[in-house]
Amino acid sequence: MPILPKVIDVGNSKMVSLPKDWFEYYEKVEGVEIKEVAIEVNKVLKIWPIIPKKERVRDDGERS
Q1: Parallel, antiparallel, or unpaired: how do β-strands 37-41 and 45-49 relate?
Q2: Are 63 and 57 contacting, i.e. CB atoms less than 8 angstroms apart?
């Protein structure tokens, strides 16, 4: 089902907001907070979350 956000005027620009549920879904699935999204514009506007790499702890206790 498509999300139908409202278009909001912001200065000389337009803005659409993404529902909080959209972020909560990806944060639950990926286990990390979504702080950035990627946007592709090519006749169709595509938006997807940028999933940060999870920090791993090596056997010797160092983070990688």
Answers
A1: antiparallel
A2: yes
Overall domain count for the chain:
1
pTM, entire model:
0.64
Read off the pLDDT band of 52 (50, 70, 90). confident
| Beta carbons of 49 and 23 less than 8 angstroms apart | yes
| Bridge partners for 8 per DSSP | 15
The answer on pLDDT for 63 being more than 60 is no
Tell me the residue range of the domain where 14 lies. Answer: 7-49
SS3 60: coil
